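Hi, here's the filled form for the chain we discussed.

Project: internal
Contact: R.S.
Residues: 637
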Amino acid sequence: MPSPDNIADRLVYLLEHTPPFDALPSEVRATLLQDALVEFFPAGTTIIAHGAEDQRYLYVVESGSVRLEHATTGQLVDMCATADVFGHWGLVREDAVPYEARAVEETTCALVPAEAFRDVYDTHPAFAAFFKDSLQQQDDVVRPPVDAGTSQLLLGTTAGDLVQRALVRCAPDVTLRVAAQRMRKERVGSLVVTDNGAALGILTNSDLRDEVVAGETAVDAPVRDVMSSPVITLPRRAPLFEALLTMARHRLHHLAVSDEEDEVIGVISASDIAQARGQDPTATMKRIERATSVEQLAGIRSEVDTQLIHLHRQGVQARDVVRINTEINDQITIRALTLVEEQLRTAHPERYIDWPWAWMSLGSEGRKEMSLRTDQDNGMIYADPPDEATAARVEAWLRPLAERANEALAAIGYTLCDGDVMARNAAWRLPLRRWKRVFRQWMFDPSPKALMNATIFFDVRALYGEHHLVEQLKRELRQALDDERGFLTFLVSIALQNTPPLTFFRRFVLDEDGEERPYFDIKLRGLMPVTDLARVLALDARFLDTTNTLDRLEAAGAAMPRVRQTADNLRDAYRHLEALRLQHQIRCIEEGRPPDNRVNPTALTKTQQQMLKVVFSTMKDAQKALELRYGAQSVRT
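And the returned structure, exactly as it came back:
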């Protein structure tokens, strides 16, 4: 039955065919519409302001679309299109609305009075259940769940579990100067002062700062003059909760841990406990800085997923979790490269050459968008050698360095790239001059393979070494874009290859794995189309400051007013998909499975499915808009 033309008839038709109104008796629907209003909202109109307390209407979208945005985080709470409802937060909860409702385009809504809505809500359980379920989904965004695993962590983790390394000790008559040098060499924040095996005290960085640096004690004084004594110890099997209480009771930042024979086996710090609880990523950074082996870095990396899950459960938004994950992975990679370079110089001093080079992060790592499942995408760039002899020496040094680095990163937990896009591959370990030539070749002869390489290598970021080499490469890219303006048309063709899994009739298009469970690849069919479009827009705007997708879209929207709305819509879509992937991968880990990108939309709630359909529709519209803007349809690869 087609939709009627008259507005009053359209509202009757709308409620007859819209859940949960369609399940109500016709006379009840008539009651709801009896005093209903119809209101038109121009694009950009704020329909419900953040913090609104006197909610007078339930809104039913007749045409157009409305965005519900979290007031504090800017996160998408819901996206309402034709036949969707909003505004029930204030009507059911009777408290301040934690989001803003804003018309994305010209929108017409039916406004059902609060009194009429509450009468039906109180007397029709199925009707009420629909809105309770919707509010629960909104709760997951605006009121993230408390970490239910915190109590288990505090009681199930022992003090001995947090001891990271063998005990570092010194004698009581050692000078403070020597003790400080030992602490720096061993990369520790404390020393246990012992005499004939017995622990007499603890010397910490704080003691050195407060006494020596402040001028209270001479640097050549013995450690016994400054150390904290007596030593407060805790059995290795004591729960983490007891360690917290002991530190609080004695105002300690360091606590000795003893074995069954009461011998001190190590020291734990307040930052160790904070890191274990998932509340202090900076403690993880400090552990990374102190790591002296690839094995230690692998141990730290194995704990990161748990830490990130705790952070997310404690209310940290998906965007920030991804940023923290990337930063931790950056520091692990930098530390691994430092260790590998030091080991190679020690083992083969004759090979070493003091030559400028940089480690390049590519792909998702280059964009600072690493998920809980990641592999390696990297390369090397180095200063142009003046002659063949120097070039041979540089390659003889960098080749084994790259090979060892890729192997070390694989041992830590970053799997080797299936396509061998890694620094160990001679094709991706080049001097600056040749990198410039490669970039121009891709742009002036854009074969399908060249375009695919461009989508990886144009998301480049210097991570370690001489960053200015990568900046010079970016300047060359900017110049090449000016020289070959038609390249973006070819690059759009790549952005059009992966389409959102949604049919014309807004049904999900799903794949099946070996177990015949339907899913779609949220990376391939969701995030990648957005990152591909963002890359095109950023290059068109000559924005090369960062390669992050959200940064690119923001910069492109600011630089090119005609694509501002498209860029804003893509930012919303990306945020939603990023959060959905993180939630999915966390669920995989909690169920004991490796995190993947296979999301089953039928396992989502109806509200989540609806939002996903809106996001995919937005992405399809953006692909069409850029296809028209750049004339890319005829050059699909």
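Let me know if anything looks off before we file it.
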